[in-house]
Amino acid sequence: MISTTETLGVDLSQMSRRVSTLVELTKPRLVSMILITTTAGFYLASPQPFNWLQLIHTIIGTGLSAAGVLALNQYLERDLDAQMVRTCHRPLPDKRLQPTTALFFGVALTAGGLLYMAFAVNALGALVISAIVVTYLFVYTPLKRKTSLCTVAGAFPGALPPVIGWAAARGTLNIEAWVLFAILFLWQLPHSLSIAFIYRDEYAQAGFRLLPVVHPDGKSTNRQIVINCLGLLVVALLPTLLGIAGIVYFFAALMLSLIFLGFGISLSVSKSTRAARRLLYASLIYLPMVFLVMALDKMS
């Protein structure tokens, strides 16, 4: 006869696995990156005294919405994810979660985050999040199967998190907020294209029309990477010129951007998967470092 304790243990174990699966569906590492750049935008826009409670509300609203959007993205692409080695073990293609559960979970998180942002922070922050929801799910996601321009379309919602933070702190959007947007926008293209280059065969098999798939020789991909790295080299210096950050940030951003450009040029020369991985790792270091130094060297 099974004891109550054993039954409770089984129930708790099942519940734990269920919660773990739902968390995995939200791509927590990507949500963390989104929250870092949102927090940076909030901090850079904040007057004194710093409003910690407003920041906490912003993180909650943004985090819920980001988690929901990423869950809905996996719901929409579940059949395509099943065709690629790097994504076939996600909760939906792996059959650990029913599609309807993922759909309702994603909708609840997204709507909850939007409402929380609107009522606990401000309407402008909620409006920026709404722009992310619409462009990420209904523009970028379907375009991945139609045109290589999807990467540019995806860079738009991906660059908005610091704008959320700025809107939450100031209640307005000015040129400084859009400079932060531009930095993230230009960073995303080398970052995303390096991933697409590494997994181009899998993306081709699944039917994604990414640039390395459409042009397998890699020339157009490498050209776009170098062009955007060059653009980033210029735009990343603007926070000092606009008074967001100081001279320490200027030289740090210059050095980091030159190194990042070097990795982009290395890929364009070698056209190797190894070089693409180096560029990917460099991008994961570049972004938090730039925003961290900017925040530390914030002008009063």
Q: What's the CATH C level of the largest domain? A: Mainly Alpha
CA radius of gyration is: 21 Å
Distance between the termini: 70 Å
> Which structural class do you get from the secondary structure elements?
mainly alpha
Order of SSEs, N→C? HHHHHHHHHHHHHHH
| Silhouette | globular
- CATH architecture group name of the largest domain: Orthogonal Bundle
Q: What oligomeric state do these chains adopt?
A: single chain
Helix content: over 70%
Low-confidence stretches: none
Number of strands: 0
By DSSP (H or I, 4+ residues per run), the number of helices equals 15
What does this structure look like?
The chain is an all-alpha fold. The chain is globular. The chain has helices at residues 4-25, 28-45, 52-76, 78-81, 99-120, 123-143, 150-158, 161-170, 175-198, 200-206, 211-214, 219-235, 238-241, 247-270, 273-296. The chain is built from 15 helices and no strands. It folds into 2 domains: 14-172, UbiA prenyltransferase (Tetracycline Repressor, domain 2, Orthogonal Bundle), CATH 1.10.357.140; 174-300, Four Helix Bundle (Hemerythrin (Met), subunit A). The mean pLDDT is 92. The longest helix is centred in the N-terminal third of the chain and has 25 residues, at 52-76.
